[in-house]
Amino acid sequence: MARNRKTKVIKILLALLFFTVLLAVFLSSNKSAPTLDSCEKDSDCVPSSCCHPASCVLKNQAPECKGVICSQECKPGTLDCGQASCSCQNKRCVVKRQ
After folding, report:
1. Which end of the chain has less Cβ packing within 10 Å, N or C?
2. Are residues 53 and 83 in the same domain?
3. How many CA atoms does the CB half-sphere of 33 hold within 13 Å?
4. Structural domain that includes position 21
């Protein structure tokens, strides 16, 4: 009877150890992921508006542009016509002038 009790205790301790290691691995892998309010690379950033954007935001904050019709002019001071692009600098999306 005492042997069964020891076996059960050992099994419970091993299960707790397994779940602790699993939790530690999960938490450490999430640390490298970008947060919702910061970028890691230029491709994380997109124009902030559908037409004539003058700033950049994270992809998860991108405007819904389906069905939006914009004029085809190249407005100064915007990302239009390759005048600028979106870039990630110091974990923030910024406009990079060409």
Report:
1. N
2. yes
3. 7
4. 1-33
